[in-house]
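Input chain follows. Return structure tokens only.
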Amino acid sequence: MIARGTADAIAAALSANGLILRGCVTFAEGERAPSGLSGASAKSALLVGQAGAAPWPHFLHWRERQPQTTANPLDSWSRDVIGAVAEKFRARAVSPSDRPYLPFQQWAMRAKGLKPSPLGILMHPKYGLWHAYRGALLFEDEIAVEASQASIHLCDACVEKPCMKSCPVNAYSKDGFAYQSCLAHMRGADGSPCRTGGCLDRNACPYGTAYRYPSDVQAFHMAAFAR
């Protein structure tokens, strides 16, 4: 068992780059779990991510020192930062973009009891839709952390569902996400508001607005989506 103080120390190390711990998953005996640092099955995963745009200034400072041709720079920055913390605390760092893909969304739901919004993004009771998971630290021992309490799913109390009514091409519906329609609109002449200010459906959500990403952060993500 890894002491609670270790999790606190990890949180402090991550905070230097605007990142936070997003919960812990303990893998049950016999459960198919990813491998840890030595290659043995991990027993726990500490999820790492962000609330709002706190990491953005740290990412921009890092990016200034990188070649302009760096592919997927936010993923690269996240791997650098989380990898350094993993090395310090003898853990294996993994990323949501690693192949084969790891079930980060399922881990997040297990760790904090979150549920998807109509947009597919997990709804957080404090941050709304303005949060993300950047990686995880895998340990071959259990981590001593406080048990998470069940979260309120704010979407259940939202009657108007403005997140389903603001997209000009109705990309989100009860049938799911119309990816090609969204992409074509984003790349077209009428997609400028979405490219520069972010997804209109996401921005229409009334929850967690204090954590809403600034327009330059949203534009960065939308440009990556539209490539």
